[in-house]
């Protein structure tokens, strides 16, 4: 599993959401939308019902959805790297679907900073921070080489994101564009990969 795939999955926690029976966006509906989706998608990580996850994302991402992320990864003794990723809707969803079972245990925290709603209430820009954390299980580490049974491995990410959202003609809140800047740190145990 690549870091790019991992970060893509994390952002699905904040790029999709639940539907509300309303005709215009409000700060309250956008907050509820984002926090609800975060809870829903965390609860279905590693789920065997991936078609439901796919349907959920297809409903709440516009047809022209674009995800962009500028990722700086710090991997201890393995050094640092920078990567820019960009996905259109289908590739974004496919990336999540092909790796969903690998992300059981990812915990995330969403902190909404600002919400700017258009005068007609149909579009909004939401700026937020997304922190995510994952600790590997000991059996995952044991497969990687000379690693003690009680060694720890994990990652921490912080992403500053800007989401362009809208309410469509069916009154469903959707994300049209998600642009993030992510800083990721990995903790690798002594002996990992040796």
Characterize the quaternary organization of these chains: single chain
Tell me the count of domains. 1
Q: What's the number of helices? A: 5
Shape: globular
Supply Rg: 18 Å
In the CATH scheme, the class would be Alpha Beta
Mean pLDDT value: 79
Strands in their spatial order, largest beta sheet = 2-1-6-5-4-3
H/E element sequence: HHHEEHEEHEE
Structural class computed from helices and strand pairing: alpha+beta
Beta fraction: 35-45%
What is the CATH-assigned architecture? Roll
How would you sum up the major sheet? Answer: 6 strands, mixed
Q: Would you tell me which CATH topology applies?
A: Nuclear Transport Factor 2, Chain: A
Give the distance, in angstroms, between the N- and C-terminal Cα atoms. Answer: 19 Å
Q: Which spans of ≥5 residues are poorly predicted at pLDDT below 50?
A: 13-20
Report the count of strand segments.
6
Considering DSSP H and I runs of 4 or more, what fraction of the residues is helical?
25-40%
Summary of the model, kept short:
With 194 residues, the chain is α+β, with helices and mostly antiparallel strands.
Verbal overview:
The protein is of the alpha+beta class and 194 residues long. The protein has a single domain (3-187), classed as Nuclear Transport Factor 2, Chain: A, CATH 3.10.450.50. The chain is 29% helix and 39% strand. A 6-stranded mixed beta sheet has the order 2-1-6-5-4-3. A hairpin with a 5-residue loop joins strand 1 and strand 2 (80-88). The longest helix is centred in the first third of the chain and has 17 residues, at 27-43. The two termini are 19 Å apart.
């Amino acid at each position: 599993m690549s870091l790019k795939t991992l970060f893509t999955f994390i952002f699905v926690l904040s790029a999709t959401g639940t539907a509300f029976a309303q005709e215009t966006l409000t700060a309250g509906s956008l907050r509820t939308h984002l926090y609800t989706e975060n809870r829903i998608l965390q609860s279905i990580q590693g789920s065997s019902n991936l078609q439901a996850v796919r349907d959920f994302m297809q409903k709440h991402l516009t047809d022209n959805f674009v995800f962009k992320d500028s990722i700086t990864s710090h991997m201890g003794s393995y050094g640092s790297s920078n990567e820019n990723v960009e996905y259109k809707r289908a590739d974004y969803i496919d990336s999540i679907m092909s790796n969903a079972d690998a992300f059981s245990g990812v915990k995330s925290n969403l902190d909404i900073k600002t919400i700017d709603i258009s005068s007609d209430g149909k579009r909004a820009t939401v700026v937020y921070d997304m922190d995510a954390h994952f600790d590997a299980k000991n059996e995952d580490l044991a497969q990687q080489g000379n690693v003690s049974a009680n060694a720890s491995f994990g990652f921490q990410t912080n992403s500053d994101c800007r989401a362009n959202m809208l309410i469509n003609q069916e009154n469903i809140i959707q994300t049209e564009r998600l642009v993030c800047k992510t800083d990721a740190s990995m903790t690798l145990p002594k002996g990992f990969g040796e």
